[in-house]
Write a structure and sequence with these properties.
About 5% of the residues lie in helices and about 70% in strands. The termini are far apart. By secondary structure, the protein is mainly beta. It comes from Candidatus Pristimantibacillus lignocellulolyticus.
């Protein structure tokens, strides 16, 4: 039997709420949530600190929000700064600011237009980014599309279709990349990973230890230690590849 919800939790200015069951939680200003909460919608603008776990249909962050526990939601939207000590499990993640998660992120769809830092793994059906990211574990998604305009790192990357390009639309990023290349700091502006494995792999401006795939395309600016492929491989003249091995 579904529990009845007592009402809305609202903080305007400065205040705090106890944990529990709510219809909606809205924080405008500075607010603390002391305990686990279950709400249909959670919206914050300003500064918010959640000391427990959050379960909801949607979480929207504008400004700064800190979560000491886990987040389980259908939709997570952040246009400010989010720091999550636990895991983030949801259907859709959209980050237009700064998102930090100390554990894993699991979602159907992830869109990152800012910066993302994850200490654990990311698992998704689709991962699209036009910003930067630092993933200490595995980035695993069926379809991965990276349009680099910031620093990108994942310890390992796996999926079905992986595409990495540097953003030609971001003039500042392009100028920084060219200057870094000229003065010997190109690696700091490449996507970096120990290993990338997928059915179809297409890379630009990437530094990778091992690339494995059925069909592999290595574009300009790449520095690859070893390529293992089963069907086709194409290597741009301005790419560096130490070893190529066809797997039969």
């Amino acid at each position: 039997m579904e529990q009845s919800r007592p009402g809305n939790g609202v903080i305007s200015g400065s205040g705090q709420l106890a944990g529990g069951l709510y219809e909606n939680i809205t924080i405008s200003g500075s607010g603390n949530i002391n305990g686990d909460i279950n709400a249909l919608n959670v919206k914050t603008s300003g500064s918010a600190h959640f000391y427990g776990n959050v379960s909801s249909e949607s979480v929207t962050v504008s400004g700064s929000a800190k979560f000491d526990g886990h987040i389980n939601t259908s939709r997570y939207l952040s246009s400010g700064s989010s720091r999550i000590a636990g895991h983030l499990h949801c259907h859709e993640v959209t980050s237009n600011g700064s998102l930090s998660c100390k554990q894993d992120i699991r979602a159907e769809e992830i869109k990152n237009n800012g910066s993302m830092h994850v200490n654990g793994d990311i698992e998704a059906e689709s991962f699209n980014t036009s910003g930067g990211f630092h993933i200490k574990g595995l980035l695993n998604a069926s379809k991965i599309n990276v349009n680099m305009s910031g620093r990108c790192f994942a310890h390992e990357i796996g999926g079905d279709q992986i595409t990495v390009r540097y953003s030609r639309l971001n003039i500042l990023s392009t100028l920084i990349r060219l200057l870094a290349d000229q003065f010997g700091y190109a690696d700091s502006w490449r996507l970096r990973s120990e290993q990338i494995e997928a059915t179809d792999v297409s890379l630009e401006w990437s530094k990778v230890g091992i690339v494995r795939g059925n069909r592999v395309n290595i574009g300009p600016g790449c520095n690859i230690g070893l390529i293992e492929y089963t069907e086709t491989v194409n290597i741009h003249p301005k790419a560096i590849v130490d070893n190529v091995k066809k797997i039969i």
